[in-house]
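Now for a specimen:

…
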Amino acid sequence: MATSTQQGNDIYLRNKIMTATPAELTLLLYEGAIKFANKAIMAIEKNDMQNAHNNIMRTQHIIQEFRATLNHKYPVAKDFEAVYEYVERRLVEANIKKDIEILEECLTHLRTMRDTWKEVMKAAPNTRA
C-alpha cells in the first residue's frame, strides 16, 4: 500500500504532467529517460538484472516515443533521428550485455539533448521554462 507521502507525490506528478506545455512534457520525458537509465545502472551494480532490464526498456520506450513524434518538416529532425536511433541501438546492446559503460554513454547523449532542450525552452517565447 502506498504511503500518504507517496500518494501526495503521485498527485503532484500527475498535476505537473496534466498542466505541462508540450515543451515541458518533452523535458519531463528527457528527465524520465535519464532517471530510468540511472536506475538501470544501480540495478546492474546490485546484480538485479530484471530491474536493470525493466529500466533500460523504460528508457528505450521514451526514445521510441521521441522518434515517433519527430516533426520531419524541419531539417534538424534528421539529426535528432540519427541520435535517437544510435542511442536506442546502444540501449539494446546495454540491455543484452548489462553493460554500465554503454549506459553511461547513453546518459551522456541524453543529458546533452536535455540541456539543449532547456536552452531551446529559454529562447522560445511561448514556453514556460
